[in-house]
Specification:
Length: 351
């Protein structure tokens, strides 16, 4: 079991900066997810924790020990990658056992440990097979068992579900969550998939361009995004964002006039609202009125989108709601559903 601390971490290669001034305290037993778009520095940060990259500046602590300069094998971590990394000429049993042999763990314990780990990921019946005889999901479970078998202090998982199809991803995701709950091992999990982040994490680290944008529980980052980047990255659909001006006590943009505003807003501002927090009507007396751009039937709900300038705005309506493309509709945005952001910096304005 271990807490992890990153203090003022930077990673540069010549003039390229991968990670800048990154600070993070991860609690013992916590499930932390690094979330962000491609190239934002997630993998680099994780590789520094693993010892596969050296930070250019800053210190990394695992437990009470500063591990800068310590070899990956001496950090008591297990890693799981997108590409499984199984040995093709070894059976499932030998693949899972491999870390125990390498670390010269007492051979009399191997059999029981391999069986315990393989049972946890429900691989018990496949121990004699070779990786080529397994499906993608089964291979990833072998990789998980191989990470578990050592009973490390920390798990590092880099996009472990990316090679699986959508259905398998959902079931393997649940298995990882269940496993981490049973093992109570500090886990850092890297993904660009916000649904994985929201469903797995105790806390999410949202990253962009090498910088930490927000650290919080899934509920915190969903309900109170720190800036427009986080707002537009979290949620499906993401939060609607519309730039406008405050004039005569109203928020105005094309076809938009919103009254009853809080006092402290600057003259130019971005309003944000989630599709499920607003209502849509075929009356034309709401806050934003425009022709329907598209209608998407999802089965449990209907998504109605309109366009204001370049902004595509989406409302989640009842599953029975129907409107035709081109028909005028209005979005009604209750005061409690409104988020406000500084238009220049993108930062949240707390009212
Ligand atoms: N060895 C390297 N030399 C130079 N630049 C690098 C190196 N490794 C990574 N980078 C750069 O650092 C930045 C962060 O990369 P990183 O792989 O951490 O991103 P990521 O968020 O994990 O992306 P992805 O989801 O695509 O894996 C990128 O701009 C990348 O091009």
């Amino acid at each position: 079991m271990a807490k992890i601390q990153l203090k003022n971490i930077c990673k540069r290669w010549g003039s390229t900066t991968g990670v800048r001034d990154f600070n993070l305290d991860i609690e013992d037993k916590e499930f932390i997810v690094f979330l962000g778009p491609s190239g934002c520095g997630k993998t680099t940060t994780m590789r520094m924790i693993a010892g596969l990259e050296d930070p250019t500046e800053g210190e990394i602590y695992i437990g009470d020990n500063c591990v800068n300069g310590l070899d990956p094998k001496d950090r008591d971590i297990s890693m799981v990658f997108q590409s499984y990394g199984l040995y093709p000429n070894l059976t499932v049993y030998e693949n899972i056992r491999f870390p125990l042999k390498i670390r010269k763990v007492d051979p009399t314990t191997h059999d029981a440990r391999v069986h315990k780990a393989s049972d946890m990921v429900e691989l018990g019946k496949l121990l004699d097979r070779y990786p080529r005889e397994l499906s993608g999901g089964q291979r990833q479970r072998v990789a998980l068992a191989r990470a578990i078998v050592r009973e490390p202090n920390v798990f590092l998982m880099d996009e472990p579900l990316s090679n699986l199809d959508a259905k398998l991803r959902v079931s393997t995701r649940a298995q990882i969550k269940h496993l981490q709950h049973s093992l109570q091992t500090t886990t850092i999990y890297v993904t660009h998939d916000q649904i994985e982040a929201m469903t797995l994490a105790d806390r999410v680290v949202v990253m962009s361009m090498g910088e930490l944008q927000q650290l919080g529980t899934p509920t915190e980052i969903y309900d109170k995004p720190a800036n427009t980047f986080v707002a537009s990255f979290i949620g499906s659909p993401a939060m609607n964002l519309l730039d406008g001006k405050i004039q005569d006590g109203k928020f105005t943009a094309d076809n938009t006039s919103i009254k009853d505003l809080p006092n402290a807003l600057p003259n130019t501002v971005t309003i944000g609202f989630r599709a499920e927090d607003i209502s849509v009507t075929t009356e034309t007396n709401g806050d934003i009125t425009a022709p329907v751009y598209s209608v998407e039937l999802l089965g449990d709900s209907t998504l109605i989108s309109i366009k204001i300038g370049d902004a595509l705005l989406i409302a989640k309506a009842d599953k029975t709601f129907r409107a035709n493309i081109g028909q005028q509709v209005s979005f009604i945005i209750p005061a409690a559903a409104r988020h406000w952001f500084n238009q220049e910096s993108g930062a949240r304005i707390d009212i």
